[in-house]
Design brief:
Elements (H helix, E strand, L loop, with lengths): L1 E5 L5 H4 L4 E3 L3 E4 L8 E5 L5 E7 L4 E7 L7 H17 L10 E6 L8 E6 L2 E6 L2 H4 L2 H12 L5 E4 L14 E4 L5 E5 L2 E5 L14 H7 L7 E5 L5 H8 L4 E6 L2 H13 L7 E5 L2 H7 L4 E6 L11 H17 L1 E11 L6 H15 L3 E7 L18 E7 L1
Parallel strand pairs: 1-4, 9-10, 14-15, 14-17, 15-16, 17-18
Antiparallel strand pairs: 1-3, 2-6, 4-5, 5-6, 7-8, 8-9, 10-11, 12-13, 18-20, 19-20
Helix pairs in contact: 2-4, 8-9, 9-10
């Protein structure tokens, strides 16, 4: 196994069990760089620190273990079974009205670089590291053992999440199907995991969609960046007077229309708009009781964080101008480099800019099947606030 030696003083985060080693922390390696190879990491005094996958880039090593142990089939069986048992302990695997959840949440499950989502017997595998992608067939075998006859297929959707230049084609590792239908809190959704965004659906917002349903009765609701309409469906099924859904993708809006149909909700009080959400807010003359802002990540790296903050500020200021007195703003950020404190400060600045008085009534995060690793604060990526607007 390749040996990685860290520079003096660059081992403190690893000793606190943070799983990332940046390229600048590496003093030397015992052999040539091999993309996706297993490496053992040592400090400058040759003390063992952990085992991980090597990959060229800013994050050079993603640690999968901090103990001296064999990384074999049994190792990965323990990892995947532990992830499944956590979801089972949380009560998410056997719910009568929900059959979709995240099975593996990367660093939070000790498997950095790997996401696996469960959609009613369909598993979507998405590798963000070459080392994890190279294990895909072994993982498929283990997952078939875990789920047995409940498993219908496993789809590898990693081509867009792996480093540029690494050849990877999406495809089925087990079984075959292009779409499926799931139930979330009694609401039905068609999941296009082959052609849709991310793994097909934004499971992390489940509890926040459920919270929205408590407030929408007889209200006018605007759902921006709506994708396939998760928040819109909840609003429609829980008595909203009017729902407007906005997304720049016509394909996403067609998925929303399909979800309206499978839920058998009244279409007369719903309208879709194919538009940039910020442009829609700037040009709209409508006033709403509730607005949902759930944009894609505005910043994936620290060097663009300032621009992202300005983007969130402009977006939220425009939304606050469109909310009736006594209304609510559900606003989110999934930018990992924008923490809770910065996000809250940004929304405060937006409220000042819009000239609106607000109160925070809920502080939100991702659902329980997207756990946060206490040693890896970056795994708490989803931030949300519900503001009461005076």
């Amino acid at each position: 196994m390749i040996k990685v030696i860290l520079k003096s003083g660059k081992d403190e985060s690893v000793k606190r069990f943070h799983p990332w080693i940046f390229s600048g922390a590496i003093k030397k390696m015992s052999s040539e760089h091999i993309e996706g190879a297993l490496v053992q990491v040592f400090d400058n005094k040759d003390n063992f620190l952990g085992t991980g996958h090597y990959q060229k880039g800013s994050i050079a090593v993603r640690l999968i273990s901090f103990e001296k142990e064999d990384v074999d089939t049994a190792f990965w069986q323990r990892k995947l079974n532990s992830a499944y048992n956590y979801r089972k302990a949380c009560g998410i695997t056997e719910l009568p009205d929900t059959n979709t959840y995240r099975l593996v949440h990367a660093e939070a499950d000790g498997m950095p670089g790997l996401i696996i989502d469960y959609y009613n017997g369909h598993l979507v595998f998405q590798a963000h590291s070459i080392g994890m992608h190279k294990q895909r067939h072994l993982f498929a075998d283990i997952l078939q053992e875990i789920y047995s006859n409940r498993l219908k297929c496993i789809y590898d959707k990693s081509s867009d999440t792996l480093p540029f230049g690494y050849a990877a084609a999406n495809g089925f590792l087990f079984g075959a199907a292009s779409k499926c239908q799931v139930v979330e809190c009694g609401h039905h959704f068609i999941i296009d995991y082959v052609g849709g965004q991310k793994t097909g659906f934004f499971i992390d917002q489940r509890e926040n969609r459920k919270l929205l349903s408590n407030y929408v009765k007889n209200k006018k609701v605007l759902n921006t960046f709506c994708y396939s309409g998760g928040f819109s469906i909840y609003a429609l099924k829980h008595g909203a007077e009017m729902v407007h859904s906005v997304d720049s993708s016509k394909k996403a809006l067609q998925m929303l229309e399909d979800n309206i149909m499978v839920n058998a909700v009244e279409k007369n009080n719903h309208t879709s708009f194919a538009s940039d959400s910020l442009d829609f807010l700037k040009n709209s003359k409508e006033a709403y009781d509730i607005i949902i802002l759930d944009p894609p990540a505005y910043a994936k790296h620290r060097n663009v964080r300032h621009n992202a903050v300005q983007g969130y500020k402009r977006l939220n200021a425009e939304a606050l101008k469109r909310i009736n007195s006594g209304g609510l703003l559900f606003t989110f950020s999934c930018s990992q480099v924008v923490n809770h404190a910065l996000f809250k400060a940004t929304i405060t600045s937006a409220a000042i800019s819009a000239g609106r008085k607000t109160k925070i009534i809920h502080q939100l995060s991702q659902a329980v099947d997207h756990p946060v690793n206490v040693y890896h604060p970056e795994s708490e990526y989803l931030k949300g606030l519900v503001l009461y607007v005076e």
